[in-house]
Amino acid sequence: MAMKRRKLSNPLALAVMVTLWQKPMHPYEIAQTLRRQGKDVSTKIKYGSLYTVVQNLEKHGFVEVADVERQGNRPERTVYGLTEAGREEMADWLSDLLAVPAKEFPIFETALSLLGALPPDEVVRLLAERLQNLEVEVASGRAALEKLYETLPRLFLVEVEYQLHMVEAQAEWVRGFLEEIEKGSLPGVDGWRHFHETGELPPEFT
Question: Which InterPro entries does the record cross-reference, listed alphabetically (predicted)?
Fold first, then answer.
């Protein structure tokens, strides 16, 4: 099942709609709420573009002006609320993202697809360095998660759990791949090494 094309595709728009689903807010309050709820850990949030996202949501009929706050000499603050169309779009978009796997293009996958351009021993050194960094990330991530469990329900931390699990899975894969290169059990590793030593491309690589 393919993912539906949407009028807005910026994940920040979805995060804003879910925030306004909680209650109507002005953009500054939306930003504060996203930060307080830790959504900046899982969603790329450019707070400067938040106003533009809200305006685009309004243009498409997903949010509307619910109130204009006036306090003394302070500038007016426009409070936005989710429309019925916005509620439907939010639920539909979120359902789509949860149910339909999307092909993403992490930069590490790009690097792996091109690693033959470096000698095997250099790749071993670089991946060993990556593994060390991943292990530090796992240790600090686990400590941070345990701390968060003390103040937040687990429901609000599932994305942090998932991120940590993905880092652990990557570390496990890198560890195994490193071992294969070092032991020489990786198919093609001899041809790869021979190419970097002689400049001759093995027949199986052409």
Answer: Metal_resp_DNA-bind_regulator, Tscrpt_reg_PadR_N, WH-like_DNA-bd_sf, WH_DNA-bd_sf
